[in-house]
Amino acid sequence: MAIAGVGGILIVAVFAAIFFHTFGTQFMIAANGGGIPPTLALTATYFSLVSASVGNTVLAIVLFGCYVLFWPLICYISFIQPTRMLFAYAFDGILPAGVARTSRSGSPYVAVIIAFVMSVVTLIWGVYGSNFFQVLVYATLVQLIAMGLVGLSAVIVPYTKPDLYRASATKLKVLGVPVVSIAGAGAIATCVIIWILYFHYPAQFGLANKTKMFTIFGVTIALAVVYYLVAKAVRRGQGVDLARAYAEVPPE
């Protein structure tokens, strides 16, 4: 995972160097706004712009092939995430236990069916809804908050919960600092940088209405807290303490 992360950073660095030393920010903004000169016969896609910047048709073909192959893989990963989330919620008692039911082969088929139905509904909304991409921008930013909180936990857990840290998957240190804390700090920095980019370039990133975004954030978080408290109260009435589910490091 560390090698994959470093490789991703290197790839971003290479494309950033191409970006700033060839067509640059102003051209990218104009291109995405429909300002490409008709004589160039290009569309505002990254493989067209990058290949044009180096004058290489083969590179455009390779990048386009990667783009085509990317979508089936990312759809597969995106479908797994809600399935695992539903299963974990049911396993911890926040959702009905039936959602965590598995087949003979160990597949959480109930969670898979629910995730499939929700995915189809979301797809229909994305195709026919007028505000889907606006909500997608908001969802991207709000999930970064969760990512930052996980990073913060990684930073402080080795010092505040040493027992949990000793039971974790790795206890490696760099210059006396736990690797998990370094990774957590990197996650926090990533979240902060992306938020700065979105707010510094709101038109380019589709952040049209900041007030509406924070309103949606507040309502969503409030509903989540209310749901958890209700689920906790219901489980307490059944003799189950949900707090115990989070008293140890999960298996992953």
User: What string, H for helix and E for strand, traces the elements in order?
Assistant: HHHHHHHEEHHH
- The end-to-end span amounts to 14 Å
Low-confidence stretches: none
Physical arrangement of strands within the biggest beta sheet: 1-2
Helix content: over 70%
Strand content: under 5%
Q: Could you describe the largest sheet, including whether it forms a barrel? A: 2 strands, antiparallel
Oligomer: single chain
Any idea what the shape is? globular
Question: What is the radius of gyration?
Answer: 22 Å
Topology record:
Elements: H1 2-21, H2 24-32, H3 46-54, H4 57-92, H5 109-128, H6 132-160, H7 162-166, E1 173-174, E2 177-178, H8 179-200, H9 202-205, H10 210-237
Antiparallel strand pairs: 1-2
Helix pairs in contact: 3-4, 4-5, 6-8
